[in-house]
């Protein structure tokens, strides 16, 4: 379905009613939150603060149910904005608690398998060593900043959509990002692996630590301390989210593409250059981004037609 420029203003005053008030993004949150509570209950003993995490997730579930309950009385615009705000609150909290779950849910290690995949893909050569030959403090500094603040790429696209006052596109965009992120989290459970920067099994022979010019080293250390989960390589969430943002911008905010495209390319390169990811992770992230952009959008568009008809539609048709 091809989106076009608005010819008539969307109906922002009509309630966003449907049978239950649940949107696709709500189901994503609900499944992941309930699943996390169950995992905390099952594992319990070795987990750090299972009571606190379970109560937090339960509180988020209650808040989500409150949003769902109020949805039929809200305008489509208010409902879409509220869900975007809920996502910005929930996603970082869930990412933080993964460090308390992933190592115990699946204690297997995939580092060597990913390392061998990379070597096979490059005909026996080590891609991280090849990229390491480009090591330069100025390049490191710039790429470290881009890597640390990649989420601004998605935020910029979100702001552009909000400014267009087209709530069903905002709802679609939010769902695609949340779906992409949660699938990447599931990947951490299925293929747990720490990055080459940690080199848990001494697979690499890095000649020297990479360092920047100003704050790159401090940023790396701070991020390593803040991120509680270390088995978060496969797929590359940085790659998936940034590329998805670019794909969404190409569809809904074309003026941003010339600005975002070089940033996304630099970010994807940085995941390997900075030794955070295997090439296998990047490939998986690219597949996830395209898969979410295509199938996630189609799934939500089907929901839109079923529940909203033409309400809030940017062109009067889908």
In short:
The protein has helices at 24-43, 50-70, 76-97, 102-105, 111-121, 127-132, 137-148, 151-163, 167-190, 216-226, 237-252, 257-273, 279-307. With 318 residues, the protein is mainly alpha-helical.
Describe this structure in words.
The structure is a single chain. It contains 13 helices and no strands. The protein has one domain. The protein is mainly alpha-helical and 318 residues long. The longest helix is centred in the last third of the chain and has 29 residues, at 279-307. It has helices spanning 24-43, 50-70, 76-97, 102-105, 111-121, 127-132, 137-148, 151-163, 167-190, 216-226, 237-252, 257-273, 279-307.
Mean pLDDT: 89
The structural class is mainly alpha
Over the alpha carbons, how many angstroms does the gyration radius reach? 21 Å
Give helix and strand order, one letter per element, not per position: HHHHHHHHHHHHH
Low-pLDDT sequence parts: 1-13, 15-19, 314-318
Helix content range of the residues, please?
55-70%
Query: How much beta, percentage-wise?
Result: under 5%
Write the layout of secondary structure elements.
Layout lengths: L23 H20 L6 H21 L5 H22 L4 H4 L5 H11 L5 H6 L4 H12 L2 H13 L3 H24 L25 H11 L10 H16 L4 H17 L5 H29 L11
Which key phrases capture this entry?
disordered N terminus; disordered C terminus; mainly alpha; 318 residues; 13 helices; 0% strand; 65% helix
């Amino acid at each position: 379905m091809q989106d076009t420029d608005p010819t008539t203003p969307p109906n922002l005053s009509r309630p966003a009613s449907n049978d239950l008030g649940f949107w696709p993004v709500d189901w994503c949150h609900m499944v992941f939150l309930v699943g996390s509570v169950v995992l905390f209950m099952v594992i319990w003993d070795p987990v750090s603060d299972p009571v606190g995490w379970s109560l937090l997730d339960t509180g988020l579930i209650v808040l989500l149910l409150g949003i769902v309950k109020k949805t039929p009385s809200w305008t489509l615009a208010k409902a879409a904005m509220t869900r975007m705000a809920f996502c910005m609150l929930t996603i970082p909290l869930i990412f933080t608690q993964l460090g308390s779950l992933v190592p115990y849910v699946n204690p297997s290690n995939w580092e060597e398998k990913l390392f061998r995949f990379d070597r096979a893909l490059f005909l026996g050569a080590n891609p991280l060593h090849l990229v390491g030959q480009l090591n330069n403090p100025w390049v490191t500094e710039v790429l470290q900043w881009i890597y640390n603040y990649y989420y601004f790429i998605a935020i910029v696209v979100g702001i552009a959509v909000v400014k267009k006052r087209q709530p069903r596109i905002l709802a679609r965009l939010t769902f695609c990002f949340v779906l992409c992120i949660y699938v990447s989290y599931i990947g951490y459970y299925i293929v747990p692996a720490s990055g080459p920067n940690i080199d848990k099994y001494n697979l690499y022979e890095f000649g020297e630590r990479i360092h920047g010019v100003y704050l790159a080293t401090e940023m790396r250390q701070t991020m390593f301390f803040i991120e509680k989960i270390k088995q978060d390589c496969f797929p590359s969430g940085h790659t998936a989210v940034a590329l998805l943002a670019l794909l969404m911008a190409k569809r809904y905010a074309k003026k941003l593409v010339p600005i975002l495209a070089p940033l996304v390319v630099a970010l994807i390169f940085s995941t390997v250059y900075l030794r955070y990811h295997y090439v296998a992770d990047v490939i998986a992230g690219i597949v996830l981004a395209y898969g979410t952009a295509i199938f996630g959008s189609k799934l939500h568009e089907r929901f839109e037609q079923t529940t909203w008809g033409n309400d809030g539609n940017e062109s009067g048709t889908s």
